Amino acid sequence: MELTCGRDADQNGSAWEQTGILDLTAGEMGTRGLRRRGLRKPAKAAKLLGVAWRGVLGVPDSDVQPTRQTQLKLASVIRELRPKTVILPYWEARHPDHYHASTLGYEGCFLAGLKALPIAGEAYRPFKILYATSFAEVRPTFVVDHYQGI
Asked: Which residues pair with 20 in a beta bridge?
């Protein structure tokens, strides 16, 4: 999130006071893994960005898969937080966790809106899903210019 949307949060201030960030993993397999630092980096980033909420779903790093169990766990969070807009990684990526996160996020949003789904909370589906990328060579539908003020 910090790589694709962080500057927006920094520039738009109060709009991000209603924003939440959900990390699917703690990033423990990466060279800059978050678990190794006691998850201090996400908490610090949330504070700097001014977001209202930040959490970790608890999926093992390097094993993000759109399994039914993980879909339901994500759908529960979506029902609880009721986001109007969800920003997901673009579905084409070098890292398998990133493209699986895209699928998992889409399916979690869909499942959260099913009234008969046997999970806690009232059925809810986000109004809009956006896809963000900083690496894939895709033609964007819109671009946010971060140049001014950097």
From this structure: 53
CA of 132: how far to CAs of 31, 88, 144, 147, in Å? Answer: 23, 6, 11, 17
Per-residue pLDDT reduced to its tens digit, 70-119: 999 999 999 999 999 999 999 988 889 989 999 999 999 999 999 999 99
Cβ-count burial of 111 within 10 angstroms (0-12 exposed, 13-18 middle, 19+ buried)?
buried
Query: What is the pTM assigned to this prediction?
Result: 0.83
**For residues 7 and 9, what is the distance between their CA atoms, to the nearest angstrom?**
5
In 3D, which of 108, 59, 61 has the Cα closest to residue 83?
108
